[in-house]
Amino acid sequence: MIPRKILQSEVEVILNLEEGHFADLKSKDISPAKITRTISSFANADGGEVYIGIEDSPREWQGFATFEDANGLIQALEGLFPLGNGFDYTFLESESYVGYVLKVETQKSHDICVASDNKAYLRRGAQNLPQTDQPSLERLKRNKGLASFESEVLNTDPDVIVDSEVTERFVANVIPSANPTRWLKKQQLIREGKPSVAGVMLFAEEPQALLPKRSGVKIYRYQTRDESERSFLVYDPITIEGCAYDLIKEAVSETVRQIEGIEIMTSEGLVRAKYPKEALHEIVTNAILHRDYSVPDDVHIRIFDNRVEVQSPGLLPAHITPQNILQERYSRNGTIVRLINKFPNPPNKDVGEGLNTAFEAMATMRLVDPVIRQQGMNVVVTLKHESLASPETLIMQFLECNEFIVNKQAREITNIGSENSMKHILRKMVDAGMIDVVTGKTVFDTKYTGKKV
């Protein structure tokens, strides 16, 4: 084992590290049993890093004298990951300190990772929370993709999907020779004489009556560029209901309609807002098909003056993270995803390529990439109406069509929120001879022109 030598600046970063959801510091005297709890919690959440050999009070470097002194900890970690996948470790050394610090990097695991006490832990903030009761374990299984709420059966009459208009259209157009009841049972959409969640979402005329607060879409229009506040809400939220196929179609259509009413400042002046319909379609489709139906909440689409946010209930499943979501594939609701693809003109025509298509569509329109993040118990995807062009380019393009520009207009076309930041950009452009100043009452209402005045 060859240790990695690190700079004093890197040592300072470690010593000043804030313990939280993705990082932890431990003494070299920690027991193997306790370190497995921390590693279990990271593996069951989103992964993280542990630096072993850092004392807490006071915070200082006190590493292992030899590699062998850490053998007990390493053996305990290898017991958690017998195939060697899921974690990696490195010894760090510094010229300024004695001893080696053991850095352990843990990845989000495919399966539930239990500590040496046979309990599963989950990282929340800086805590390692034991998942011992049945509801917690079931929720963890669903987050890992080991179980899906879509397979749960509902205590209602199966006729809600056998005799529905949705099933009637589907059978007539897709499987004309099939008996509806027999086909639904074959697809495991009716079990023990009851319809499953997947069956209801796909074939019930009104799933929201059977799955209230976890099967609809709400659309909000905020007349602001800032965070959502009820005072900026243009009108009451719009509720979209229906089977999954209709839900996607109507949610996309209404979102596009709402966006078309927005006027935004661009380098060409005030124009109608435009987002690629393909991007909106794919992101809304993903939010509905891949949401966690065990979470009692609807999908929320929030439309602002400068962005669209799509919030889908539930964490990313299994090993999927915001960083690898474009490369990795995993379907939480495999039955819903598979069967909706059998509908005429399915919303998920290119299965597994949805988000990639959204990114490509935004790039084609010269807009910045969508932003994907986990927020609380939700996944939020943000589409920004923000050009890939530099602020200077956008300002010069604006001045080709307009005689003057002021700080506020420049911020609107560049999506830069700070008045002072924009003031510095405009000042640099003046110094570079790109624009001229027309004096105003303050630095913020000063006019700038690309023409000599």
UniProtKB/TrEMBL annotation:
Pfam families: HATPase_c_4, SLFN_AlbA_2. Residues 19-129 form the Schlafen AlbA-2 domain. GO terms for molecular function: helicase activity. The keyword ATP-binding applies. Keywords: ATP-binding, Helicase, Hydrolase, Nucleotide-binding. InterPro entries: RecG_C_sf, Schlafen_AlbA_2_dom, Schlafen_AlbA_2_dom_sf. This is ATP-dependent DNA helicase RecG. The lineage of its organism: Bacteria, Pseudomonadati, Pseudomonadota, Alphaproteobacteria, Sphingomonadales.
